[in-house]
Structures are given as structure tokens and as C-alpha cells.
Amino acid sequence: MTEARLRTFVALADTGSVRAAARRLYVTESAVSAAVAALTRDLGVPLVQRVGRGVRPTPAGTVYAGYARQVLGLLEEGRAAARGAADPGRGPLRLAAVTTAADQILPELLASFRARWPEVELTLEVGPRRQVWSSLAAHEADLVLAGRPPADVAATVLARRPNELVVVAAPDVAAGFALDRTPWVMREPGSGTRAAADAYLAERDAAPPRLVLGSNGAVIAGAAAGLGAALVSRDAVGAELDARRLVVVDAPGLPLNRPWHAVGGAVPTATTLLFVRHLLDAPGWTAAGGAATAGPTAESTAGAG
């Protein structure tokens, strides 16, 4: 069960095609087939089955793919930890962030970090809440920037930053705002902001018309164009509020406090802590119980925040 075979099987499980897996890995299709066949022999159970022109994991293959991702993630994490311990300023750093955080808080942070530590091998994954926490759980990310970590993800909360959610609308829409009648423009299901909006409306038994848009920028632009109200981070609409394209609606129970969290695995790498220390130099960020400066034995909190 070599690392190459595990990577091949995960690629096949992800893509559903021998050809697509071969393209992803820059190997031949016969090499993909041979690797999966060897794993099947080692385990003694079928891992994939044909479906039309493609393949998909068997139930056993689905279970095994989850373990394979964690093994591969641990290997990458181990490499990152070793290289970071030798020289944190030249180690790898795998960041993952929810879309809102990537839009609002990461660009300036990344630019200043790269200017300060240009030799850090930085990668960034941007996706919905479930995706980034899954990456941390599978050891595929060293640090996640998102809201509160789920209770079932073992996580080390290293830093926090305040984040106020407010309802905004164009001035004429805000003037006639009614919780049950005014349309809402919202992110897609799976977004943390969408979950907060759904929970807010459900708590008040409100069921206004909803228009789903695919990004934070589209939601803000839609609200400014008069399509409806939107629940957004105050930080995300500063320019629109200053220009009076949007105004904050005086809605009950608002603003909501949904802090940003910088979250690592159980033992953050030296390069991860280098980034967190940089983060703490930025306005608004505070260490979580001193974890960011305590080194690799930082406080571990599951579902904290």
C-alpha cells in the first residue's frame, strides 16, 4: 500500500474515471488501473465498480477512500512539520478559507505575509464551510479561516477576530422593510452566512421570498440594486455603507456576533504558527487563550468558539 497507490485510488474515487485520474496524476491509464488492482489484491475486497462509462467506489471503496485521504494528509502534514521545524520561513503552509473570509480578510493578510516571508510555500483552498472543515479533519489543511469549528472536528483555535452580521438593503428597500414580506438575497446552501440567515429567520417564524445568488459579491450587488435585504458581514459592505448604496436595516435581534476563527490541527506546524503570529499583528485579531504564542503544544479545543 504505497503512497503512490493511495494517491491513485483517491484520484480515481474523486474523478470517477480512469482517464481523468490519469490526467490529474500525469500518469498513464494503465498505471492507474494497475495501482487500483494492486490495492484490491492487498485488501481482498473490491474497491471500485463500473457505472456506465465510468467507475465509482464500492461501499468498501468509499470507506477506504476516507482513510486513504487521512493517511495522505498526515504524510503531507508530517513533511510540512519537519520542513517548518527546520526553517519556519521556508516551510509549506496549506491555508483553507470559507468564501466570505477569502473575500473579506485574506487578501491584505496574504499580501503582507508574502512580503514578509516570501519563501514560505503557500497554498490556498477556498470553499464552503463543510469543505474547509473536512480538509482540516483529513489533514489536508494546516490552518482554516472560518467561523466556529464544528463540534466533531478536533481543532486548535489559535486566534479570533470580531465579525458582526447585519441586515442591509438599498435605502428605498430599507424604508419599507418588513421581516415577512421584504425579499432576501442569500448565498447558496452550505455557506455559513446562509446558515446564519436561515436560523435567524426560523427563530422569528419569518418566511420572506428568497433569491439565491452564488457569491458574496453577487449578494451585495443584488442588495444594492434593490433586489432585497441581505444578511452580511459589516466589514464586507463598508464602501457601500459609506456611499449610501446600502444602509443597515434596524431588524430585531441584530447585529449577530459571528467571530472569525483561525484554526489549526492538534499540533500546529512551526510555519502555521508563523502565519498566526503575523495574523495577530493585524487589526482586530486576538490570541485564543495564548494558543498562538505557546508553540506546538498550544491549547487544543474541540468545537470551541
UniProtKB/TrEMBL annotation:
Keywords: DNA-binding, Transcription, Transcription regulation. It holds the Pfam family HTH_1. Coiled coil: none annotated. The keyword Nucleotide-binding does not apply. InterPro entries: LysR_HTH_N, LysR_subst-bd, WH-like_DNA-bd_sf, WH_DNA-bd_sf. The keyword Membrane does not apply. It comes from the Bacteria. Signal peptide: none annotated. PROSITE patterns: HTH_LYSR. Residues 1-58 form the HTH lysR-type domain. Belongs to the LysR transcriptional regulatory family. This is LysR family transcriptional regulator.
